[in-house]
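hey can u check if this looks right to u? its 76 residues, i copy pasted from the old doc so theres a chance i mangled smth
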Amino acid sequence: MNYKFYSSSKFFDLVIKGGIIVTAADVFSGDIAIKKDKIVAIGTNLADYAAKVIDAENKYILPGGVDIHTHLDMPF
């Protein structure tokens, strides 16, 4: 992953930039902004307001998604 650091006086702690965002309602390209470990904004061009940026171009982002699969070695 590519990281870019900015001044700590920025509004967001972290922006995940340019990813393919998948929600329950839609799929689109954009940014996700995080502040104090919570998603606070989903939009475009949010990187200018972040202390840290992760470039997620061509990568899927599932905000709020939880991977609840398991691998079991069951002796049935």
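The chain has a mean pLDDT of 85.
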